[in-house]
Amino acid sequence: MAEDRDLIALLKAGNADALEQLIMRWRSRAEAYANSILHDSQSAEDVVQEAFSRIYAVRTRLDEDRSFSAYLYTIVKRICIDELRKQKRFPNLLGELPDPPVDSAEAEFIKGLERLNRIHLLATLDETDRKLLLTFLLEGKPTKQIAKEMNLSDGQVRVRLHRIRKKLKKGMNDDA
Protein backbone atom coordinates (compact mmCIF):
# COMPACT_ATOMS: atom_id res chain seq x y z
CA MET A 1 0.00 0.00 0.00
CA ALA A 2 1.38 3.39 -1.03
CA GLU A 3 2.14 6.03 1.54
CA ASP A 4 0.30 9.36 1.58
CA ARG A 5 3.38 11.22 0.29
CA ASP A 6 3.58 8.90 -2.74
CA LEU A 7 -0.14 9.34 -3.42
CA ILE A 8 0.21 13.13 -3.20
CA ALA A 9 3.05 13.00 -5.75
CA LEU A 10 0.88 10.88 -8.07
CA LEU A 11 -2.07 13.21 -7.54
CA LYS A 12 0.07 16.23 -8.45
CA ALA A 13 1.03 14.39 -11.63
CA GLY A 14 -2.65 14.05 -12.52
CA ASN A 15 -3.36 10.49 -11.36
CA ALA A 16 -7.06 10.37 -10.35
CA ASP A 17 -6.62 6.92 -8.76
CA ALA A 18 -4.32 8.51 -6.18
CA LEU A 19 -7.14 10.77 -5.03
CA GLU A 20 -9.48 7.79 -4.88
CA GLN A 21 -7.02 5.95 -2.63
CA LEU A 22 -6.66 8.99 -0.36
CA ILE A 23 -10.45 9.28 -0.12
CA MET A 24 -10.81 5.59 0.75
CA ARG A 25 -8.09 5.92 3.39
CA TRP A 26 -9.20 9.16 5.06
CA ARG A 27 -12.94 9.66 4.42
CA SER A 28 -14.34 7.87 7.46
CA ARG A 29 -11.90 9.57 9.87
CA ALA A 30 -12.58 12.98 8.31
CA GLU A 31 -16.35 12.41 8.55
CA ALA A 32 -16.02 11.45 12.22
CA TYR A 33 -14.02 14.64 12.81
CA ALA A 34 -16.58 16.80 10.98
CA ASN A 35 -19.44 15.08 12.81
CA SER A 36 -17.77 15.84 16.15
CA ILE A 37 -17.91 19.52 15.23
CA LEU A 38 -21.30 19.72 13.49
CA HIS A 39 -23.22 16.95 15.27
CA ASP A 40 -24.93 16.10 11.98
CA SER A 41 -23.75 13.11 9.98
CA GLN A 42 -25.29 14.26 6.68
CA SER A 43 -23.62 17.67 6.94
CA ALA A 44 -20.37 15.95 7.92
CA GLU A 45 -20.47 13.87 4.73
CA ASP A 46 -21.10 16.99 2.67
CA VAL A 47 -18.23 18.81 4.37
CA VAL A 48 -15.77 15.98 3.69
CA GLN A 49 -16.84 15.76 0.07
CA GLU A 50 -16.28 19.50 -0.26
CA ALA A 51 -12.88 19.16 1.43
CA PHE A 52 -11.72 16.51 -1.04
CA SER A 53 -12.99 18.68 -3.89
CA ARG A 54 -10.92 21.58 -2.63
CA ILE A 55 -7.86 19.39 -2.25
CA TYR A 56 -8.26 18.21 -5.82
CA ALA A 57 -8.61 21.82 -6.99
CA VAL A 58 -5.25 22.76 -5.42
CA ARG A 59 -3.52 19.41 -6.04
CA THR A 60 -0.61 20.98 -7.93
CA ARG A 61 0.29 23.11 -4.90
CA LEU A 62 0.31 20.26 -2.36
CA ASP A 63 3.62 19.52 -0.65
CA GLU A 64 4.29 15.78 -0.44
CA ASP A 65 6.63 16.36 2.50
CA ARG A 66 3.73 17.57 4.61
CA SER A 67 1.13 15.38 6.24
CA PHE A 68 -1.96 14.80 4.09
CA SER A 69 -4.09 14.46 7.22
CA ALA A 70 -3.01 17.96 8.29
CA TYR A 71 -4.23 19.35 4.95
CA LEU A 72 -7.46 17.42 5.14
CA TYR A 73 -8.32 18.18 8.77
CA THR A 74 -7.51 21.87 8.36
CA ILE A 75 -9.83 22.16 5.36
CA VAL A 76 -12.57 20.12 7.07
CA LYS A 77 -12.33 22.32 10.17
CA ARG A 78 -12.59 25.54 8.12
CA ILE A 79 -15.60 24.29 6.16
CA CYS A 80 -17.28 23.20 9.42
CA ILE A 81 -16.71 26.65 10.91
CA ASP A 82 -18.24 28.23 7.81
CA GLU A 83 -21.22 25.87 8.09
CA LEU A 84 -21.73 26.75 11.76
CA ARG A 85 -21.62 30.45 10.89
CA LYS A 86 -24.30 29.93 8.22
CA GLN A 87 -26.47 28.07 10.70
CA LYS A 88 -26.18 30.93 13.16
CA ARG A 89 -27.24 33.43 10.51
CA PHE A 90 -29.88 31.14 9.07
CA PRO A 91 -31.12 28.86 11.85
CA ASN A 92 -32.62 25.62 10.69
CA LEU A 93 -36.37 26.13 10.85
CA LEU A 94 -37.13 22.65 9.60
CA GLY A 95 -37.08 21.15 13.07
CA GLU A 96 -40.29 20.32 14.80
CA LEU A 97 -42.80 23.06 14.24
CA PRO A 98 -46.01 23.23 16.23
CA ASP A 99 -49.18 22.23 14.44
CA PRO A 100 -51.21 25.17 13.17
CA PRO A 101 -54.19 25.99 15.34
CA VAL A 102 -57.38 24.22 14.34
CA ASP A 103 -60.51 26.33 14.12
CA SER A 104 -63.36 25.32 16.35
CA ALA A 105 -66.58 23.99 14.84
CA GLU A 106 -68.20 27.34 15.62
CA ALA A 107 -65.48 29.25 13.74
CA GLU A 108 -65.83 26.91 10.74
CA PHE A 109 -69.61 27.48 10.75
CA ILE A 110 -69.13 31.26 10.82
CA LYS A 111 -66.65 31.07 7.94
CA GLY A 112 -69.21 29.09 5.96
CA LEU A 113 -71.89 31.69 6.63
CA GLU A 114 -69.55 34.50 5.60
CA ARG A 115 -68.76 32.65 2.36
CA LEU A 116 -72.47 32.21 1.62
CA ASN A 117 -73.01 35.90 2.37
CA ARG A 118 -70.27 36.86 -0.11
CA ILE A 119 -71.80 34.63 -2.77
CA HIS A 120 -75.22 36.19 -2.11
CA LEU A 121 -73.74 39.70 -2.34
CA LEU A 122 -72.10 38.84 -5.68
CA ALA A 123 -75.46 37.59 -6.93
CA THR A 124 -77.04 40.96 -6.12
CA LEU A 125 -74.65 42.76 -8.49
CA ASP A 126 -75.87 43.48 -12.00
CA GLU A 127 -74.38 41.42 -14.83
CA THR A 128 -71.87 44.09 -15.94
CA ASP A 129 -70.53 44.75 -12.43
CA ARG A 130 -70.26 41.02 -11.66
CA LYS A 131 -68.37 40.40 -14.92
CA LEU A 132 -66.11 43.39 -14.30
CA LEU A 133 -65.27 42.30 -10.75
CA LEU A 134 -64.70 38.65 -11.62
CA THR A 135 -62.56 39.53 -14.65
CA PHE A 136 -60.44 41.80 -12.48
CA LEU A 137 -60.13 39.52 -9.44
CA LEU A 138 -60.21 36.00 -10.83
CA GLU A 139 -58.63 36.45 -14.22
CA GLY A 140 -56.23 39.13 -12.99
CA LYS A 141 -56.63 41.28 -16.06
CA PRO A 142 -55.46 44.91 -15.84
CA THR A 143 -58.08 47.64 -15.86
CA LYS A 144 -56.96 48.91 -19.27
CA GLN A 145 -57.57 45.52 -20.86
CA ILE A 146 -60.96 45.19 -19.15
CA ALA A 147 -61.90 48.67 -20.35
CA LYS A 148 -61.04 47.75 -23.93
CA GLU A 149 -63.02 44.50 -23.76
CA MET A 150 -66.10 46.12 -22.18
CA ASN A 151 -66.03 49.34 -24.27
CA LEU A 152 -65.41 51.54 -21.23
CA SER A 153 -62.65 53.97 -20.34
CA ASP A 154 -59.95 52.95 -17.89
CA GLY A 155 -61.25 55.58 -15.44
CA GLN A 156 -64.79 54.18 -15.65
CA VAL A 157 -63.54 50.68 -14.88
CA ARG A 158 -61.55 51.92 -11.88
CA VAL A 159 -64.47 53.92 -10.50
CA ARG A 160 -66.89 51.01 -10.97
CA LEU A 161 -64.51 48.60 -9.28
CA HIS A 162 -64.16 51.00 -6.35
CA ARG A 163 -67.93 51.36 -6.02
CA ILE A 164 -68.48 47.60 -6.29
CA ARG A 165 -65.95 46.89 -3.54
CA LYS A 166 -67.48 49.59 -1.38
CA LYS A 167 -70.97 48.13 -1.92
CA LEU A 168 -69.78 44.61 -1.10
CA LYS A 169 -67.95 45.78 2.00
CA LYS A 170 -71.03 47.67 3.18
CA GLY A 171 -73.18 44.59 2.59
CA MET A 172 -70.77 42.44 4.58
CA ASN A 173 -70.80 44.95 7.46
CA ASP A 174 -74.61 45.34 7.43
CA ASP A 175 -75.07 41.63 8.09
CA ALA A 176 -72.51 41.54 10.90
Structural description of this entry:
The protein is mainly alpha-helical and 176 residues long. The protein is built from eight helices and no strands. The protein has helices spanning 4-12, 16-38, 41-57, 68-89, 105-124, 127-137, 143-150, 154-175. The longest helix is centred in the N-terminal third of the chain and has 23 residues, at 16-38. The protein starts with a helix and ends with a helix. The relative contact order is 0.07.
Summarize the structure.
The protein is mainly α and 176 residues long.
**Based on CA inertia axes, which overall geometry fits?**
elongated
Question: SS-based structural class?
Answer: mainly alpha
Main sheet record = none
Structural Rg: 33 Å
Low-pLDDT residue intervals, each spanning 5 or more residues:
none
Query: H/E element string?
Result: HHHHHHHH
What percentage of amino acids are in beta strands? under 5%
Number of discrete helical segments: 8
Query: Helix share of residues?
Result: over 70%
**Mean residue pLDDT:** 85
Measure the end-to-end span. Answer: 84 Å
Number of strands: 0
